[in-house]
Write a structure and sequence with these properties.
4-stranded antiparallel sheet, 22% helix, 4 strands, alpha+beta, 138 residues
Length: 138
């Protein structure tokens, strides 16, 4: 019996790549309470949201010099995500993911971004539901 496994049609970007001069900056499992959802009860009660983000960052031709201003800072990424979530009710997880991606693509050093937004309590008998998007600079 053959154990054929079809290849995915989704080509995955390699986020850290010395040959392409890019590094990988990421945030894992950021937990935030936010107002998100299309149903009336979701507009009243905040929900637990988990956010994961991967940034493909172009390395500069100059040395880092161990200076904070020479890197894409994951703390600023987290502050930005928290600010977006705190800014008010969002109907769709897709909209939240797009807002997070757009915020991060403002930094011209970022070549691409992958964002996963999960609602942890939305559907009974699941760990989470949500969306993952990936955006690339033209």
């Amino acid at each position: 019996m053959s154990s054929f496994v079809p290849k995915s049609n989704n080509a995955s970007i390699k986020y850290a790549d010395a040959l392409k001069g890019v590094r990988h900056v990421f945030v894992r499992d950021l937990m935030i309470k936010g107002s998100i959802g299309v149903y009336d009860h979701e507009k009243i009660d905040k929900q637990q949201i988990r956010v994961n983000i991967d940034l493909c960052v172009k390395e500069e031709d100059v040395p880092l010099g161990d200076k904070y201003e020479n890197v894409v800072c994951y703390e600023k990424v987290v502050i930005g995500i928290k600010s977006i979530v705190a800014s008010g009710h969002i109907e769709l997880v897709e909209t939240l993911a797009e807002k997070i991606a757009n915020f991060n693509m403002i930094d011209k050093r970022i070549v691409s971004v992958r964002v996963r937004v999960e609602k942890l309590d939305a559907i009974e008998n699941t760990t989470s539901v949500g969306v993952e998007i990936e955006r690339h600079r033209d």
